[in-house]
Amino acid sequence: MDLKNELAMLIRQEQALQFDRFDEHSAWQLGSLLYQRATAENWPLLIDIRRFDRPLFLAARPGTSADNHEWVRRKNNTVRRFLCSSYRMAHQLRLEGSRDDLPVAEYACVGGGFPLIVRGAGVIGSVTVSGLPDRHDHQVVVDGLCAVLEQCAETLSLPPNVS
């Protein structure tokens, strides 16, 4: 899949993976599911779910470090600023051939940050993971959202590698 087609899939994911409502229970359900999967796969994963005004879920698996917290902070900043996934932003910037001069100390345009979108309200927060390669971080979040929202993960998954 080329970069343009993959960007179209990333946009499709955001259009499909939306909540009717999102609250503390929703955050717990999603965060617990992501943590259980990380445990089953023995992944060193940091999971952060937040509304833009407050944290709702935070869990760290063995093997994570302070660096993972910094990556999560920077990915969250990217989602909050651009109201789209941090991986989508990476693709958009690559297609434009620019970096948008984002300060790397504050923003990370890599996989792992995904907007929490509520129908009728828009982007209210983010779910972010760190600990795996960025493409894998992104797909872990998409898989978790598919499970919680009862969407077909196969139709919303990225292929293993970009061509």
Put the structure in a nutshell:
The protein has 163 residues and is an alpha+beta fold.
Folded structure, characterized:
The chain has helices spanning 3-16, 24-41, 66-82, 86-96, 134-149, 153-156; strands at residues 18-19, 46-51, 54-60, 113-118, 122-130. It is an alpha+beta fold and 163 residues long. The chain has a single domain, classed as Haem-degrading domain (Beta-Lactamase). Strand 4 (113-118) and strand 5 form a beta hairpin.
Name the features.
alpha+beta, Beta-Lactamase, 5-stranded mixed beta sheet, globular
Topology:
Blueprint (H helix, E strand, L loop, with lengths): L2 H14 L1 E2 L4 H18 L4 E6 L2 E7 L5 H17 L3 H11 L16 E6 L3 E9 L3 H16 L3 H4 L7
Parallel strand pairs: 1-4
Antiparallel strand pairs: 2-3, 2-5, 4-5
Helix pairs in contact: 1-4, 2-5
* Anisotropy-based shape: globular
Strand order within the widest beta sheet: 1-4-5-2-3
Number of strands: 5
CATH architectural group: 2-Layer Sandwich
Low-confidence stretches: none
CATH fold label: Beta-Lactamase
Order of SSEs, N→C? HEHEEHHEEHH
Give me the secondary-structure category. alpha+beta
